[in-house]
Amino acid sequence: DLSDSEDSVFSGLEDSGSDSEEEEEEEGGGGGGGRSVRFCEVLCAVQDIRNTVGNVPMEWYRDFPHLGYDLDGRKIYKPIRSQDELDHFLDKMENPDYWRTVHDKQTGSDITLSEEQVALVRRLQSGRFGDVDFNEYQPTVEYFSRDVMLHPVTNRPADKRSFIPSLIEKEKVSKLVHAIKMGWIKPRRVEDDSRGRYYDLWASEDSSILARHKMHLPAPKIPLPGHQESYNPPPEFLFNEEERALWEQQDAADRKLPFVPRKFSSLRSVPAFPRFVHERFERCLDLYLCPRQRKMRVNVDPEDLIPKLPKPRDLQPFPTTQSLVYRGHSGLIRSISVSPTGQWLASGSDDGSVRFWEVCSSRCLKTVQVGGAVRRPVCLTHLDSRVLLLSPSLADRQVVSASELLLSDKEGAEPVQGAESLVTWSEAEGEELNEGIRLKIQHPKAVHQVAWHAKGDYLASVMPDHSSHLQVLIHQVSRRRSQNPFRRNKGLVQRVSFHPLRPYFFVATQRSVRIYNLLKQEMTKKLQANAKWISSMAVHPGGDHVICGSYDCRLSWFDLDLSTKPYRMLRHHKKAVRGVAYHRFYPLFASASDDGSVIVCHGTVYNDLLQNPLIVPVKVLRGHAVSQDLGVLDVTFHPSQPWVFSSGADATIRLYT
Amino acid sequence: MGGLQKKKFERGSATNYITRNKARKKLQLSLPDFRRLCILKGIYPHEPKHKKKVNKGSTAPRTFYLLKDIRFLLHEPIVGKFRDYKVFVRKLRKAYGKSEWTSVERLRENKPTYKLDHIIKERYPTFIDALRDIDDALCMCFLFSTFARTGKCHVQTIQLCRRLTVEWMNYIITSRALRKVFLSIKGIYYQVEVMGQLITWLVPYQFAHDHPTDVDYRVMATFTELYTTLLGFVNFRLYHSLNLVYPPKLDGKAEAELKEEDEEGYAMNSESYSEKLSALGGSLARVVSAGEEEEAEVDQFPVEGEDMEKMEAREKEQKELEAQKRLFEGLKVFLNREVPRESLAFILRCFGAEVSWDKSVCIGSTFDVTDETITHQIVDRPNAEKQYINRYYIQPQWVYDCVNAKILLPVQDYFLGVTLPPHLSPFVEEKEGDYIPPEKLKIMALKRGEKSAQEEEEEEEEEEEGEGEEEEEDEDEDAEEDEDEEEEDVAEEMNLKKMEKQRSQGKSLSVKVTPGKVKAENPARLEQEEKAEEKRLAIMMMKKKEKYLYDKIMFGKKRKIREANKLAAKRKAHDDAEKVAKKKKAKKQ
């Protein structure tokens, strides 16, 4: 059958081949080739009969004028073709047989298929047999059936070897037996399942815990899910658009939640979680790759951190409420001071006036226009470069006359010596005298601070100037004499102060406080304030403690017996500390700052040297308004009462009682 | 000075640690084998305190193991097995290459295997230790049991995981140890209390996993190997602690019931049996029959230093627990085919309900839909075609919420087609100051036996809606009142103007001293203020270090409060919007 069909399949093609060849021959006029071809046709139907090159790619002959060789070994030349695209196109349009024209590579010719051939191609394309007459559904003939036939297919008798035991097999068996005897072949291992796959592993629980187990850190458990993870969370746990956008922007490591909370109306609509396997895998990685560490958790009750201090109520008296406001100045009030009796208050302001107030009634009794900003009125005032001594004549007549006498006492005045060139003393006259100005001390530079000695005869003035030897001057009023105590000053002098009891002199420079012994004329101590820039200084009435305020918000308390380092640094203020003051006999001190507050602290100093001072903040007093970043500029205590005065940039003085 | 020169990195911490590569070389193992060994033996890297010292001066990132740990690994018999396996693979490859099929078969038969029993015993010297660490094992086994049997891992592993998880669930049902459940978007969390240990695991929803490509399944398989061994031993011990037969067998009655059903669907008897077990329908056979061993009453001994209050609280807790264990007792629940059968059957049976399902869903259903004694039917579709009057048709969330609330919640919130109340996590324990969702407050109130405020409010609202007209009248009245107030205002203004006029005309006002009002000073508040100030002053005196710590703690606290406030605000906004929408709807109608 098969051979038949093959023949039939290819028969048509042969015909066509021969047809075209004949045509070509006729065209080419090659008579001799034709016969030989026809001869070949009979012999081998499949091959192209004229070209003998075989089944090789025809590109190999691209560069040659010929296509191959015929049976006689002569070259077959390529047909002369001069068809370009246009000719192709015209051919396509005009030739009705164009669709069935095939290019034969081996001969280089075009073959037009006949009707039969086209039909054959179509049949093959549709997967049918090439032969039209072939019946593919012929009934099969079964040569062998499952039925046992009467007669055997072969009737050969069995061989003799099928009755005799095989020697070769015997040899093999004996070899195996020998190997088993010798122990070379072992029986198949039987898995030891006597106890079953699982058994009571912890039947004999030995309590001997190895050191390993003591050191072992169990892996932390996975944190339990919160409300956000629910398939139907409360609405407040769902993301709104902002949060969602934020979540998407964030890096996966920074996200608070590793997933977006979602809400489903029913359980059946919940899909699979796409990262489930990932999360399990990450957990596995954590278990075997993460270093484990015992972290000591700071589990502190924050209340325990707050130091236990004595209650402020037990430390009374101290000022608690604002009771009086002294209004009248129009500029910043730089400085205030209280008369020793506590009845009068003097204030110097940037508006160029000194005012005297009655403490109890807040009335301004006297205003002295001095011209120029007043830095410090202590019954005296100092302007840009002058120090004026005023007599307010507000006290008892006796006292007034005594002080008048002192100020006008010229007898003590000695002929001035070297200091004369520095300052000039002059007496006030006329109008100024009526206003209360008694003496003027003309300084060469701007005076920033004036400090009185406890006895009232000496006063020191500060003229801060970098690396100048003339920064501090000490004046003696009764003798109208001035002197420059230091040959050289280190740094910018900020504040000076006399020791209340002993002949010591405190000089605060930018970073440190120096203490000089005036009698021995030498430096006894240098206190390191640990601050960037000291702004103010006050000496305890006992003389053994000093407080310094600084522009970097700190207040340092020095215990002179203890160390040159601060005994305690207080960072109570938010802004620069402008003024500090001690009370004369109550254990109180106050600090004023640019943040508009005055903080009153209790500072008990014990007489025995073993006990350190007790410092407790007792009250934060607010009231001053902050203007131009300046809050409270000066603070001072009432000499006898636990009251505190403060002057501020809002042109008021306030009394807290 | 005499003596030898001290060399660097020859003492101290540098000698206590070893890098991973060095450890690997010391053990003569390839990296995958080393990894497997570390997983099986539970060895993890350590972070040295001074990395530079240990790293011999270099700061390159390296993984360090304790040298002790590695020395400990040296004596592990399993390392030898790893080597055997390597040899086996080599021989097998050679035999394949030579097409020696008999030797291939022989080699296959003698494939080296290893057991992890001793490692489990070594890692978990006591049973409680094993229980404590079983969370991960359960999660992993439940995940693997849901995998399709398609080449990501061995089919045997999947089957084993399935078997072990079914055993575990059966144990939990029998011991009634389930405490909390939670439907999350990831899967279902279960928390059980076994021998005083809280164990939580997560089961994914029943869907096919799309296996990610960036996951190393070999690592997971190694973990699973360990975990299946661990879980098997734990199951064995747990079953024996309850006098149950292990491997589990259904008890005679249940088995007889199940026998009636046709088993033609299953090729093998064993298969059908394991399916029956995994249906979680029947109770398990015991070694000693159940009736005899009623639990003895536990006597209470007061612990020294514990006062009566504490003891009472404990007793109360105990009672509550007992009540919770019998939460669903007496219910007969039928599960529709669209609900997660396994999870619900597990939970319901854990609390003593009778459960059944459609025959075609799974083997082991005990009663039919048509049974008249069914009390609850769990349905997860908008409506049911045929409804029986004598049973509740509820959504599955009811079961989960009941378990978490430890009471039977009112069913009307969970009827078909009703918008479900939010499902809350039972694992969140709100401390003071934390945000508590109103639903939780409601449930807490319900537990105390009160009607929650919100519910009342809602009722009121309903009433209001019923009396809509009256309300409108009320509003009118309100408007009138407002007008009255306005009139008063006008009068006052007039009075003032009059006075001003008088003043401008120069008439002296009648000077009068009016009695001042006594300012009511609240002593409590004053005291509070004083205390606050005291505290503020004390804070000022704190030392720098302590202040820093204090500030940090306070910052954390404040952030917590802020978050709680934010949630509360969000909730309020949501509720308001909902109310407005509701009103609009009502008006339209």
TrEMBL record, chain A:
The keyword Nucleus applies. Gene3D superfamilies: YVTN repeat-like/Quinoprotein amine dehydrogenase (2.130.10.10). Residues 61-319 form the BOP1 N-terminal domain. One of its GO terms (biological process) is maturation of 5.8S rRNA from tricistronic rRNA transcript (SSU-rRNA, 5.8S rRNA, LSU-rRNA). It is found in: Nucleus, Nucleolus; Nucleus, Nucleoplasm. Keywords: Nucleus, Repeat, Ribosome biogenesis, rRNA processing, WD repeat. The keyword Nucleus applies. WD repeats lie at residues 326-367. Residues 1-34 are annotated as: Disordered. Its main location: nucleus. Component of the PeBoW complex, composed of BOP1, PES1 and WDR12. The complex is held together by BOP1, which interacts with PES1 via its N-terminal domain and with WDR12 via a high-affinity interaction between the seven-bladed beta-propeller domains of the 2 proteins. The NOP7 complex associates with the 66S pre-ribosome. The PeBoW complex associates with DDX27, BOP1 interacts directly with DDX27. This is Ribosome biogenesis protein BOP1. It comes from Myripristis murdjan (pinecone soldierfish). The lineage of its organism: Eukaryota, Metazoa, Chordata, Craniata, Vertebrata. The gene is BOP1.
